[in-house]
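Worked Example 4.2. Read the sequence first, then its structure tokens.
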Amino acid sequence: MTLLKPSDRRERLEKIVTAWWRWYAALGALGCAAYFVVPTTVWGQSVFVLVGASAVAATVVGTRMHRPRNRSAWLAIAMGTALWVIGDIVYEWIHITQGSVPYPSPADAIYLVGYPVYGFGLFLLARHKWRPSERGHVANSAIIMVAFGLLTWVFAVQPSLGGGGISGTAGLVDVAYPAMDIFLLGLLAHFVGSRQWRTLSYRLLTVAVALLVVTDTVNNFAIVSDSSSDRSVFDVGWIMSYVLIGVAALHPSMRRITNPNIESDAHLMASFTTPTVVVLTAATLTAPIVMFIEVVRDEPIAQWGWAVLLCALALVVLVMLRITDLLRLLHTQTVQLRAVADTDHLTGLANLRALEHRLWGNAGESTLLTVDIDRFKEINDTFGRGLGDQVLVVV
């Protein structure tokens, strides 16, 4: 029997652990296919629940195995996912025992509790230490949330309420689901604007959240049937979201998802990238576009007018906040560039350009004192330019 060195055992264990996420991804893809292939709905929903439970187990195992610094974030994500799986089990149990599921049902309560728990984990994963530049990403998320909320309310929630107000538990649930999706969408916008985007685990988790929001939105707009007996192709969004959560937790890069310590100005600049500006511009135009559509459809203004008014007001305030941030950033960068242009990179003193500005910009008399270092060329030739530069700095 050959005994392995501790370093060899550790290397072999890391190779085994590294392969786990690939195996889980393959098994998850197989589970997604099996969900639509199995002959009965009961078997299909069993596969659905099994994939969700495996995502919870993978998240817990990955957290214990990789020991990330933000362990509480991953455990909150696992807990939120577990609540959704429990909701799936309760929903199917009611459907099997009673033949139909009332709306709302106890499963809806469990689902809705899972959203804030899951979102809290995402927030812990993406958050930075608060700094003035952090509000830029928060404002970006708020703009997207307001725009998406307006679209959801006017074209999904309000029609489902029959043009009336919120009445009864069913009406509250009809509003709660889109509200939770808006909440996740805001976190998703914060995810994409983060510097942690470089890690594969972070990107996988981002895609999982995006799939969840898209699938929920499709369901909110009543494109997908609410019946559990109808295994729609859009269900792949929910089941794939489960799989991606597990893969993200098992991937070794999850231990490197930490709160980055970056410069304030760099963080602020990251919230003004070209894709971000395009998305924010489209979100800002949501209010007038919705108004135009509703006027063309001749919908009563009493039903949608107040929603457009409130969202337009919120968007104006948020956009003014972003413009203020941009002007402050441009001023800061202008000052920094002027200082760089007038400073010698070696000594940190004023350079020839700064000297010219002082001489020609001074209306009074100026005095210039020149200092020469004797035998400086011999220092460079004998000891090299590196030591010569050090002599210049010391002098």
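Now turn to a second chain, presented in exactly the same format:
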Amino acid sequence: MSINVRGYAAHSSTSPLGLFGFVRRDPRPDDVVIDILYCGVCHSDIHHARNDWGGATYPLVPGHEIVGRVTQVGTNVSRFKAGDLVGVGCLVDSCQRCRACGRGLEQYCESGKTLTYDDVDPHDGMPTYGGYSERIVVTEKFVLKMPDGLDAAAAAPLLCAGITSWSPLRHWNVGPGSSVAVVGLGGLGHMALKLAKALGAEVTLFTRSPGKEADARRLGADHIVLSTEEAQMAGVANRFDLIIDTVPYVHDINPYVPTLATGGTLVLVGYLGPLEPMLNSAPLVMNRKAVAGSLIGGIAETQEMLDFCGQHSIVCDVEVIRIQDINEAFERMLRSDVKYRFVIELASLKGWV
């Protein structure tokens, strides 16, 4: 039978999120039913709710950094059982047939991946609703095993902020001897520092804000460079094998290119859109440098990241909130007033009318 669920939804691009009742699909033989314990609040939740990227469909229930406990499994499910602590990230399905899916890169599915929210289930045409809700139904392949020993609330943002940082670190083979820089110290940036350091890299934070040094060093930075100081930027010329740029809005990336080593790459993980001012290709061509992009990770890579975090006791720095405070949290995020991720405790929905 269908599952009645309560959550918080945006009903338009300008309305605050509010209580919303809806129906989850009848569980299929390969489905896992999950009671949601915690859901991280990602910057992209705001973009979707406010239709910053266009194409949003309302009502819209955000949330794709989900940790919960299994309550029911379908007859074909073999990897999970009731009581298991599990995670769900940004994807709940993909075609499983294209070249990208065959390589474990479901995030780049060529036939159209299915997002955890603000999307349409290709099997039944139902809208997908995210983790700002009591429970969720997800096909087994897109459910992740949460490691033992990690705080469940602090682990929730690993399902987006963690994997978004981890995927480029792994793709560009970061390890001992690598020199990595991170641009921006927010939800993504603080995870990039932690993960790069744990992989054995020498880690630098680029920031425009003096006063972040102590926090950056606590999170794993060996060096801090003020990107507004010309002398400091000149002092790190030709140094970095990889720069992870986590800034979520349009900004000038040209000043960072000279700090790349020959053959180095600057990878954008926070901003989607045209670059302004225009990217100067001359230093790329003359020194075989690159500017690239990266989007979350596939399911196998996400599980690898979670297991690594379990082995190294890595979680996000979080502030746990009630779901009733989500609109205030959105406003605080826009002011960068959080260190470094809000996480909703879904128990706050119980008894709420």
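Notes for the reader: The domain at 161-293 is CATH 3.40.50.720 (Rossmann fold). The CA atoms of residues 66 and 184 lie 24 Å apart.
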